[in-house]
Amino acid sequence: MNEIAPDSVPARLAFVVGRFNRRLASATGGLSHGLLSALATVAKRGPVRLADLAQTEMVSAPSITRVVAELESRGLITRSIDEDDRRAFRIEVTQAGMDAVLRARAARSRVVADLLADLSPAEVATIAAALPALERVLEQI
To answer: Could you give the domains of the chain?
Structure first.
């Protein structure tokens, strides 16, 4: 197994992302991280099958079933029969669900803005310049 040096880009990025995640954990608009993540995925990808959502969220079928049931009970998603496979169903975000995602994004953005507030404009520009590459990495998931 290849060792990754503690001062390498992967190690430093993992550390920074972990610390950012801890700061953002409380800014979820009243939803747990798992609920918000699944809801945001459904909002972004449109109607999705349960199995596809489980794969994207990297959780088991029973886990995603519980998450979807909770989101549905809160009125944040709806289920409909999949016209391509009538044994399955698709999950779609409701307006209340989209509102919840937008509230959480706004709360998280405020946390990040507070974290960036003490940086110089040049430092913020450097972070901004790295965002497209980071976004491409995450699109591969």
So the answer is: 24-108 (1.10.10.10)
